[in-house]
Specification:
Length: about 140
């Protein structure tokens, strides 16, 4: 499941970003680890990305700094939780790459882009899930 989730997440990110060889090398330089801790997901710019494999806890997205709707424990298959977690964290890696490439100018990272990517992915693979989003 982990390999399939990673492949699907990377395919999605390649479809929405123009990932050149330099950015691809940056993304491949991260070590991806999976855990079962109570923390949903964690990104560390020190070349480690941890994604929690949530079992039965539902899909959650950020409520603050978002697009007016959010996921609040929507039941989805475990693989979709893992895929959206990978998309979220690797979007942070892309943000960090852009920040460094731009001479550390501009926004370093943020949750709006990551949340939009999660929502967009879920909309493409599970439109019915998107009908269950809560309004802020």
């Amino acid at each position: 499941m982990k390999r399939i989730a990673f492949e699907r997440a990377m395919e999605y990110l390649h479809n929405i970003y123009q990932i050149d060889a330099e950015l691809e090398a940056h993304l491949q330089s991260y070590e991806l680890k999976f855990n079962n801790s109570r923390h949903s997901v964690c990104f560390q710019s020190g070349k480690l990305i941890r994604v929690t494999i949530k079992d039965g806890r539902g899909w959650y997205t950020y409520k603050k700094k978002t697009i007016g709707v959010y996921a609040n424990g929507i039941r989805v298959p475990r693989i979709l939780n893992v895929i959206t977690g990978i998309i979220h964290e690797y979007t942070h890696a892309i943000q960090y790459f852009r920040f460094v490439k731009n001479g550390k100018k501009g926004q370093r990272a943020g949750e709006l882009e990551t949340t939009l990517n999660e929502h967009h992915y879920m909309e493409t693979v599970s439109p019915n899930t998107m009908k269950q989003l809560a309004t802020i």
